[in-house]
Design a protein that fits this description.
378 residues, alpha+beta, Immunoglobulin-like, six-stranded mixed β-sheet, 5 helices, 35% helix
Amino acid sequence: MLKLRFYYSSFLCVNYMYIMFIVIAILLVFADGFTVHGPPDPLVAPLGSSVVLPCFVDEPLPVKDLKVEWRRTDSETLVHLYQDGESRAEVQQQDYHDRAHFFTDQIQHGNFSLRLDNLTAEDEGEYTCKVYSQQDSNETVVQIKDVERLLVSGSSRSTSAYVGEDVTLNCSVDSHIKPEHIEEVSWKKTVGDEDILVLHYQNNEAFPDSSNEQYRDRVEFFTDEIPKGNFSLRLKSVRTEDKGVYMCQAFAGVLSANTTVVLEQLGFSSWHITVLFFCSVAGFGAVLLLCCLIYCRSKNTDNSRTIWNLQLSLVFFPNVCMFFAFILWGLTEGFLHETVTCSALYILRPVMLIWALSYLKYLQGMLEFKVFYHYYFC
Ligand SMILES: *[C@@H]1O[C@H](CO)[C@@H](O)[C@H](O)[C@H]1NC(C)=O
Ligand SMILES: *[C@@H]1O[C@H](CO)[C@@H](O)[C@H](O)[C@H]1NC(C)=O
Ligand SMILES: *[C@@H]1O[C@H](CO)[C@@H](O)[C@H](O)[C@H]1NC(C)=O
């Protein structure tokens, strides 16, 4: 019996709560009066386009005393205000003055949508549409999730560097897609009608092996910077031939964009100055030694040892200088074959001359014979 009473009372209690809930719900609907709806999904639109932020009620509201407020949810910035039967441009944020369009003629249909023109990346975010009618108000949130874009920017001024130095060529990618999801970025250099590949990046990975021979092992991305969309290129030990126009091109879906960077005015590095120094020392040294030799000979001193030393220096000194100049030049410019050939030639030439010296006496004999022959027979 007791058990039955308990069941009965709990049944009553549940029933009572249920009824109360329905009554409260009905009261709430009546009290609130209306519900404002937004779009079912976040909005996505291309950069520079126009997008309509939907905001509407099921039943048209009395136009009298109607107030519609569009704000950015994050900053509370007033995007548009409709009050007292008109758009109140004077209280709206300046930037939206020409870009936010409210459809005044749609109000009577319970449509409070707002069109935002000339979309920028900064327009991504949440917007609150709040509608006040008589004593009630209600709101909805509209989200612009992505402003679809792919913008590639470099540096406006040209970049210059000394030969032998490292240089950074700038390239920044701004996109609605996260930088690590950008399909492809490639750095190319235009030579005549041809494009040569400097460095390639695809699906989150750089491919330095596919670089043109001229750039292999000399180019890299700043790996830490890629998540920020910074696809700048580091070109190591710059050579004179690196001068020119470089293009950074990005691909994401159907979108593609590019920027160009000019590498120019490659000045002399300390390496080049050293090369020049060796060349001048070789030239001036040779002239100086020759003058000394001529002077000694003209004085007719019998110091054959000095003459021999001068002669030897004249043969060796410029060549040794040029040998070092070519080695340095090769190191800075990276021309392996030319360097080996030229420096070998310069170091071998005096050796060959010294070796050929032993044949000089035959030459002398031949000269004397010729002079004697000439004198005797003519
Ligand atoms: C509200 O008006 C805009 C502009 O005319 C229109 O694009 C949109 O479809 C309308 N929304 C509704 C729910 O009628
Ligand atoms: C990209 O990274 C490089 C190297 O750290 C830096 O020099 C350059 O300023 C960065 N560019 C931008 C736009 O942040
Ligand atoms: C680079 O971008 C410009 C527009 O900014 C475009 O006209 C040009 O065709 C692009 N070049 C390449 C190689 O994609």
